[in-house]
Write a structure and sequence with these properties.
Layout lengths: L1 E6 L2 H17 L1 E6 L10 H6 L7 E2 L7 H19 L3 E5 L3 H12 L4 E4 L11 H12 L2 E4 L2 H9 L6 E3 L3 H13 L3 H8 L8 E4 L3 H4 L2 H12 L5 E4 L2 H10 L7 E4 L4 H10 L2 E4 L2 H9 L4 E3 L7 H5 L3 E3 L5 H8 L16 H19 L2
Parallel strand pairs: 1-2, 1-4, 2-3, 4-5, 5-6, 6-7, 8-9, 8-11, 9-10, 11-12, 12-13
């Protein structure tokens, strides 16, 4: 069996880590990096730290509007797929790389496996929501991380090819934690924190939060007045908009460059609280039993909210949400994301379902 993995952004690189290793134990894989994220600390650092094989093909797409990025990827990916003739194309999550890979494969009748299928925020203003909906509706194999994801697909009439296999980050996160912990000392030195000191981890990068000056100013003020020190890895978009709007963080905020995955896990493992607008970090916070405040009005990980470990908030209600999150956590911590071994289960399902997927295009 020959698989083609398509990834191009920080979250995708993290998600592919253990799946790629599992595929290559038993089958052939071609790893295509679209280069949607191209800065070293948003891409190559993950290949080094997580020991992901270097990409076999690098598209070099880089920055651009959604249309520019997706269009360039479609053209280049179609050419590669026609040449390589993979049995499966694997796409992850909800990025422009995801939708481009799925569309290119569907047009030339190559079976598509969508890892992290079925997520919904029900907010169509988010480009990620459009990407994940379309990808789900053209995929042959829908690898859902949770029962909630399966339920979302059922509501949309998608029942064929749906497999609840758990979340790949279960394998990635718990493999990373013991390797990440020795990095904590350097983290504390860099941020002028003391070992054992309570602090928050904050990440803000979504355009809905960064590109509106008034909203971003409210978030900056909330971070500046948080009672705990807050460590903020500054995403390139956040850095750009802070400069354009003339906004600055105060002394309570310990800014650092974007973190590699092991440094992020070390920070998450040591923190008291997470404040974010990231989808992946909400989930990782839950996996490591850290309360989370999500600066959005929707989330694709609604089960974390329902379980009481995550709170959606607008900036104006930030202090109230933080105060609630710092109360003793819920006694219950349901196992939403499955047991370790998710990535091996993905390879099992790819093997088992390939004959059926091929029939669709026979």
């Amino acid at each position: 069996m020959k698989c083609m993995t398509i990834a191009g952004t920080r979250p995708e690189f993290i998600q592919t880590t253990q799946v790629t290793k599992a595929i290559r134990k038993r089958h052939a894989e071609i790893f295509v990096n679209t280069n949607q994220h191209y800065a070293d600390n948003m891409s190559q650092v993950f290949f080094r730290e997580l020991e992901i094989p270097q990409p076999d093909i690098d598209l070099g797409v880089g920055s651009g509007s959604h249309a520019e990025q997706t269009g360039q990827m479609l053209i280049k990916l179609e050419e590669i797929m026609l040449r390589e003739k993979p049995d499966w194309v694997l796409v992850y999550g909800d990025t422009n790389s995801t939708i481009a890979g799925a569309l290119a494969a569907s047009k030339i009748h190559i079976p598509i496996a969508h890892v992290e299928s079925g997520l919904r925020s029900y907010d169509r203003k988010m480009p990620e929501e459009i990407n994940r909906i379309i990808t789900d509706h053209i995929s042959n194999l829908l690898l859902a991380p949770t029962q909630a994801a399966v339920d979302n697909l059922t509501k949309e009439g998608i029942t064929q090819g749906v497999k609840m296999i758990g979340d790949v980050r279960v394998d990635v996160v718990f493999d990373a934690v013991p390797r990440a912990r020795p990095r904590r000392a350097a983290l504390f030195a860099q941020t002028n924190l003391k070992e054992g000191q309570d602090f928050a981890l904050g990440t803000i990068h979504r355009a809905s939060n960064t590109d509106d000056r008034d909203r971003l100013a409210e978030i900056v003020n909330a971070f500046n007045t948080l009672e705990l020190p807050i460590v903020v890895p500054v995403h390139p978009r956040l850095k750009k908009m802070l400069g354009e709007f003339g906004l600055t963080f105060g002394g309570n905020v310990r800014t650092v460059e974007p973190l590699g995955f092991l440094d992020l896990i070390a920070t998450l493992d040591a923190c008291k609280l997470v404040v974010t607008d990231s989808g992946g970090l909400q989930k990782e916070a839950y996996m490591l039993s850290r309360p989370c405040v999500t600066v959005r009005d929707t989330t694709e990980w609604i089960e974390t909210v329902q379980a009481g470990w995550n709170r959606l908030t607008e900036p104006v209600d930030f202090k109230k949400a933080v105060a609630e999150a710092l109360q003793p956590p819920p006694a219950s911590h349901p196992d939403f994301y499955g047991a370790p071994g998710v990535c091996e289960r993905i390879v099992d399902v790819l093997e088992e379902t390939l004959p059926e997927a091929r029939k669709v295009y026979a």
